[in-house]
């Protein structure tokens, strides 16, 4: 790293020590539990639709409504939180989202398609903004910048658990209570996790500000817009990888291996995210972000070799390793560069950018798989990653204090 990195007087605290800090276990666990429905919804909706003899087109439409409404409403809820308080907005949105999931569970989506669309829209749009709220609170509950950096990395790595345990929770609930129980479980789990988070003291005492209002929020900062575009490319990489690796497994005559390869990618992110907690903070976060974006691209490039499944597994693991570091660096940039009074909304825009990129990457890779090959689909993942890295080099994200805090 560059000579601009801060040097702590004592060695940086590892993940386990950060987890011992007051409030951290509750906030992190509450956020993960409360966000679990986002990892449950795709499979829960599909399972419920198929149980009512609905087709995949209907399931895809409902999942699309859920995902789009979540992406669109996230920054809106983030702005409301920035101008008011965390706890009331989180609790109200959790109740509404739970109502949406319960309605979906109670409906026959085939016979009541319009009502099911409305329910999916409510469930997605009212998703509590736990992820942005958590990242805003780190600076309040941790004592140093390096501990905040460790928390960002831990957060980025552990969120992979949502997409590992979410489908497992749906399968477990469906086995115990029937096909619609996955949606009911999503409602209950999301509500419980949000209550656990929102009633913690840091969330209860946090106050936003009605000052520094601007219709564009964090989008008035050109640096923030460019950062969101980079994250769109990062999301595109993940979406294209998921589709491409599935096509690769089918071409290898081992369709079931796709799940294991995706899990290997997620496990790589989890392990690397925990390891990255020991990396010191940097004064030149923009420079670090550029380097990490290059490493992110390098991690996905070897997948184009298309070795057999046994050799593809370690490559899938390695490809996931840079993601938590890239995201942790992006979190740190948002904390430093977001205009005053817009940090929660800025983190929500990060999620939206990543989600939109993921959807675009999935779509492009799907076309590439159908018309060319799995190698072409994985090639799109590398292209998205390279595009993101290229944008960090061209835009030259600046150190703290420039083009951002003032909203210029």
CATH names the topology of the largest domain as Growth Hormone, Chain: A
- The stretches of 5 or more residues where confidence is low (pLDDT under 50) are 1-12, 399-408
Dominant shape: globular
The strand count comes to 0
Number of domains: 2
Give the ordered list of helices and strands: HHHHHHHHHHHHHHHHH
> On the 0-100 scale, what is the average pLDDT?
86
Task: Give the fraction of residues assigned to helices.
Answer: over 70%
CATH architecture identity of the largest domain: Up-down Bundle
Written description of the protein model:
The chain is mainly α. Helix 11 (222-251) packs antiparallel against helix 17, helix 13 runs antiparallel to helix 14 (309-320) and helix 13 (285-300) packs antiparallel against helix 15 (323-337). The protein folds into 2 domains: 22-205, MFS general substrate transporter like domains (Growth Hormone, Chain: A, Up-down Bundle); 217-395, Growth Hormone, Chain: A (Up-down Bundle), CATH 1.20.1250.20. The two termini are 29 Å apart. It has helices spanning 15-19, 24-51, 56-83, 86-106, 113-125, 130-141, 145-158, 160-177, 181-198, 201-205, 222-251, 257-275, 285-300, 309-320, 323-337, 343-371, 374-395. It is globular and about 55 Å long. The chain contains 17 helices and no strands. The longest helix is centred in the middle third of the chain and has 30 residues, at 222-251. Helices cover 75% and strands 0% of the residues. Keywords: Membrane, Transmembrane, Transmembrane helix. This is Putative MFS family arabinose efflux permease.
